[in-house]
Amino acid sequence: MPPIISIANLSKTYAGGFQALKNINLDIREGEIFGLLGPNGAGKTTLISIICGIVNPGAGTITVNGHDIIKDYRAARALIGLVPQELTTELFETVWNTVSFSRGLFGKAKNPAHIEKVLKELSLWDKRDEMIKNLSGGMKRRVLIAKALSHEPRILFLDEPTAGVDVELRQDMWQVVRELRATGVTIILTTHYINEAEQMADRIGIIDKGEIILVEEKSELMRKLGTKRLTLELQNKLRKIPAALKRYKLKLAPGGEQLIYTYDTQAQRTGITALLNDVSKAGIAFRDIDTTQSSLEEIFVTLVRRSR
Questions:
Q1: Model confidence over 271-299: pLDDT tens digits?
Q2: Which DSSP string corresponds to 72-117?
Q3: φ and ψ at residue 246, rounded to 5 degrees
Q4: Residues 215 and 288 occupy one common structural domain
Q5: Do 148 and 272 reside in the same domain of the chain?
Q6: Cα 135 to Cα 138: distance, rounded to the nearest angstrom
Q7: Pairing assessment for the beta strands 203-208 and 211-217 based on DSSP bridges
Q8: Helices 167-182 and 137-149, packing angle to 10 deg
Q9: Which residue from 260, 186, 239, 138 is spatially nearest to 5, judged by alpha carbons?
Q10: Which tens digits make up the pLDDT trace of 12-71?
Q11: Beta bridge partners of 67
Q12: SS3 293
């Protein structure tokens, strides 16, 4: 199946000489949730803005479901819904009118039933007659999502969609995202909450200084680049790590009640069996063992540091 979004050799340099994007090549699969991660200024918003027709590309090509975003921009743009970072809405208009007007901008016939469905899914139905200026920040962000969904797009861009949203509303939003994906909508997500990408995304792309440094299935990324930590809960406090255990590069937790061993999940041998034997020989007794895997956030930080 061909990608729903295909980006080839995309670059962008602004008038002042700043190169925001450098030779980006990326395919987005239909029906996936793609997490685009990167530090501030990495080029995430510029990339999204170009695909959505807000910013002109400098070089390269982008097609959306086969439609070139320059030569056939109307067809390409009609397939896309965008939830921007900034809260840009008409403050003195009602929720219902704002969302309905957005649908009309794409040449779609009126469909009150669809608008009602979107507002109910986003817990905005009770606010439909409220002016935007009277809503909380979280509710305003929900209105942005409703506007993006008003014309029934096949692709939804979420650019930091949960910034300023409380935990309960955030969970509700992600439930809506899961339901949209279940109907075949492709989701491209940027977020500062890396745990959200870890929870939601099928694939992860990492961008830094305008370049894509990695694109990988999330599960494979965690498997290949993740490390595991084995923690030994000691029966008695330890003042320092014995010399006999030096080769394991253990860390002694503050308080001296835990020994922490980090190992590579891809190595042929983890060294755990030998470690436990040597710990026992050193006269160290432990009462419990726990293992944890490195998070996507730790992997992200490591990759960005490597690229600099």
A1: 888 889 989 899 899 888 887 766 666 77
A2: THHHHHHTEEEE-SS----TTSBHHHHHHHHHHHTTPPP-HHHHHH
A3: -60, -35
A4: no
A5: no
A6: 8
A7: antiparallel
A8: 10
A9: 186
A10: 999 889 999 999 999 999 999 999 988 888 899 899 999 999 999 999 999 999 999 999
A11: 64
A12: strand
- Give the separation between CA 119 and CA 248, rounded to whole angstroms: 56
Residues 184/31, Cβ–Cβ less than 8 Å: yes
Helix, strand counts (H, E) of the chain: 10, 14
Query: What residues contact 104, with CB distance under 8 A and at least 6 apart?
Result: 110
Q: How confident is the model at residue 265 (pLDDT cuts 50, 70, 90)?
A: low
Smallest CA-to-CA distance from 279 within 292, 266, 260, 263 is with 260
Kindly state whether residues 294 and 246 are assigned to the same domain: yes
Distance between CA atoms of residues 112 and 127, nearest Å: 15
CB-based contacts of 303, cutoff 8 Å, min separation 6 = 206, 208, 213, 214, 225
89 and 143 in contact (C-beta within 8 Å)?
yes
> Do 239 and 210 fall into the same domain?
no
Q: CATH number of the domain at 263, please.
A: 3.30.70
What is the domain extent for residue 265? Answer: 226-307
- Tokens found for residue 139: 């509710």
* pLDDT digit string, tens, across residues 202-228: 999 989 889 998 898 988 777 766 677
- Altogether, the residues listed in the chain come to a count of 308
Query: Are 187 and 256 part of one and the same domain?
Result: no
For the residues of 230-264, what is the DSSP string, one character each? EEEEESS--SS--GGGGGGT-EEPTTS-EEEEEEE
Beta strands (DSSP E) in 147-270 are 155-159, 186-190, 203-208, 211-217, 227-234, 251-252, 258-264
pLDDT digits (tens, 9 = 90+) for 127-139: 999 999 999 877 8
- Enumerate residues 6+ apart whose C-beta is below 8 A from 57: 10, 11, 12, 50, 69, 70
Map tokens 């008038």 to a residue: 15
